[in-house]
Design brief:
Elements (H helix, E strand, L loop, with lengths): L7 E4 L10 E4 L15 E4 L8 E3 L5 E4 L4 H9 L6 H9 L5 H4 L4 H7 L5 H8 L3 E5 L5 E5 H4 E3 L2 E2 L6 E7 L1 H4 L2 E8 L6 E9 L6 E6 L6 E5 L5 H11 L13 H19 L6 H5 L1
Helix pairs in contact: 1-2, 2-5, 8-9
Pfam families: FAD_binding_5 (PF00941)
InterPro entries: Diverse_Substr_Oxidored, FAD-bd_PCMH, FAD-bd_PCMH-like_sf, FAD-bd_PCMH_sub2, Mopterin_DH_FAD-bd
Organism: Streptomyces noursei (Streptomyces albulus)
Length: 280
């Protein structure tokens, strides 16, 4: 897409006042996919030199906003953590060609805020926190599950930048389960459910994305029974929060989210010893 209203592309390393019509440019796969008549200047982050993925001294993982999907996939292939397979599963959940993989960024996927964004799924499921930087240089953190507030909506101020996402060390030790469904082969996700079982205390987190307008992350101190999981998920999602678009009606998305959540629970939770225990 030729963005013929853009008059300037500025290197983000050169400080300048933010103004109306500015936008951060990461990989550009969304910006250049459709008309952006409101834009006048792009602030290019590609030369910032941020390390794509770095393991911090405390064992947590910091993923730069400019890390591409291809870079994250290559890192995960040699990352020894138990949760590492989830990275590749989410990378493969993109409705994208290899060309997009090599340009699209983790930060861009989060900042688009689309329900089917698989980097939202990955980072929300692993209890990630987003580091945000304002124009005055001040920084704040927010959980990824709270960063996305609706379909295409996120907790970003004017000119605020998503710098990175940090995944805690403990989340990386979790055993995970992944389920995804689309209306048609290689289609956009209609429901995506991830489970993460903590080996230290036995708690279980189940995260639903794509089916809902925002990430729904449920945490249980011990793995629940099927009935409890279903009731908790249904109570956590208000009717209008089941997403509705050409890729799936709300009723179908709810049905699939509940079904996939139960599959994830059954894969990760110890088998109950009785029907009464299963219902708890």
């Amino acid at each position: 897409m030729d963005l013929n209203t853009v008059l300037e592309v500025r290197d983000a390393r050169q400080l300048a006042a933010w103004r109306t019509g500015d936008a951060w440019l990461g990989g550009g796969t969304y910006l250049f996919s459709e008309p952006q008549p409101h834009l006048r200047r792009l602030v290019d982050l590609s030369r910032m030199g941020w390390e794509p993925v770095a393991q911090l001294p405390d064992g947590s993982l910091e993923i730069a906003a400019t890390c591409t999907i291809a870079q994250l996939s290559r890192f995960a292939a040699r990352f020894p953590a138990p949760a590492a397979p989830l990275f590749e599963q989410c990378c493969r959940a993109f409705l994208a060609s290899f060309k997009i993989w090599n340009m699209a960024t983790v930060g861009g996927n989060l900042c688009n805020g689309l329900p089917a964004g698989p980097m939202i799924s990955l980072t929300a499921a692993l209890d990630g926190s987003a580091l945000l930087q304002a124009q005055d240089g001040s920084r704040r953190r927010t959980k990824v599950a709270d960063f996305i507030t609706g379909a295409g909506r996120k907790d970003l101020g004017e000119g605020e930048l998503l710098r990175s996402v940090t995944l805690p060390a403990r989340a990386l030790t979790c055993r995970t389960a992944f389920r995804q469904v689309s209306l048609y082969g290689l289609g956009r996700s209609g429901a995506l459910v991830i489970g993460a079982l903590d080996p230290l205390d036995g708690s279980l987190a189940i995260t639903v994305t794509a089916a809902t307008v925002r990430p729904i992350r449920l945490w249980f101190p011990t793995p629940p029974g099927a009935a409890v999981l279903r009731g908790t998920l249904d109570a956590a999602v208000a009717g209008p929060e089941w997403f509705d678009d050409i890729h799936g009606l709300p009723a179908w998305r709810r049905h699939m989210a509940l079904r996939l959540a139960e599959e994830v629970r059954a894969e990760l939770a110890p088998h109950p010893s009785s029907p009464e225990e299963a219902a708890r």
